[in-house]
Every structure is written in C-alpha cells, then in structure tokens.
Write a structure and sequence with these properties.
Elements (H helix, E strand, L loop, with lengths): L2 H10 L8 H34 L4 H26 L3 H6 L1 E5 L7 H13 L1 H7 L12 H6 L1 E5 L8
Antiparallel strand pairs: 1-2
C-alpha cells in the first residue's frame, strides 16, 4: 500500500472508526496485567534460579534484574506499537496505534509515545478527556505525539 493510499484511508474514517476511551483503558489494563505477570515470572525465574543454583542471590544480579525490569514497560509498548501497531491489550480489544493519516509508527515516535505515556501517566489519564470532544477521539498524548488509535478491521471483513 502506498503512502498516498494510507492517507486516503485515514481521511475516510468516521468518528466510530477511532477507538474510544473505554476500549483504550481496558487495553491498558490488560497490558498492565500482562506486564505484571511477565515481570514477576522473570524476577522469580532469574532471582529464584540464582538462589537455587548459587545458594544466594548476588547483589549485582538483583541490580541488573531490577534495571531490566524497570525498562520492560517502555520497550513493551514501544516495540509493540512499532512492530505490530498493537500491544497485547490492543490485540485483545481490536485497536491499534498509528500516525495521523494511517501510517505505522516508526520506532522513535513509538519510543517517545511510550516514554511520555509512562513518565506522565496521570497526565495521560487526565488527557484522555480530550478524546470525548476530539473528532478522532485523540487524547493529549496522541496530539503531542501525532498519533491516533483506531479499531482494526476484522480479517476478511469488507473494507
């Protein structure tokens, strides 16, 4: 698909084609659960495994594990939006993040969106109120990063 045709698709969407606040919040809740489970399992595996094998958990391993797990949410969101346009929550809810006009996110924009959304989570949440009045249901984070969240058509559905 050419850049021109994806811009045409973006221009032809109706308000109902853009993801609403509830769908987006449920997707984020699913992502939080997925991240929590993944982080707990990874920490238990690494730190518990070290305890079993070494009889003790070295301080450096705790520090490295903590550092990696602190970065996990940022890269989970950034890589999901960059590679698939969706996170696990977005996949379940049938929504995807894209640039305004319908193009996929490049990694720098996906990373910026993830960093801002996580660093200013409360502001992101409050900024979602803008989606109630915006024609494309964009929240403050979407406006700042030049993104929009849309419902993904089901495979095989008529376009």
């Amino acid at each position: 698909m050419s850049a021109g045709s994806s811009a045409e698709i973006g221009a032809s969407l109706r308000r109902e084609d853009y993801a609403g606040v509830v769908s987006r919040l449920v997707a984020v809740a699913i992502d939080v659960v997925a991240l929590t489970v993944a982080a707990a399992a990874a920490a238990a595996l690494v730190l518990g495994g070290a305890e079993v094998v070494l009889g003790d958990t070295p301080g450096w391993l705790v520090a490295v594990t903590s550092f990696v797990l602190a970065l996990l949410p940022t890269f989970y969101f950034a890589l999901g939006w960059w590679i698939l346009g969706q996170t696990a929550g977005g996949l379940v809810m049938g929504i995807a993040v894209r640039r305004v006009g319908g193009r996929p996110l490049h990694f720098p924009r996906a990373l910026l969106r993830a960093i801002l959304g996580l660093a200013f989570f409360v502001l992101w949440l409050i900024g979602m109120a803008l989606a109630f009045v915006d024609q494309r249901r964009r929240g403050l984070l979407d406006v700042v990063t030049g993104t929009e969240v849309v419902y993904v058509p089901e495979r095989g559905a008529q376009q």
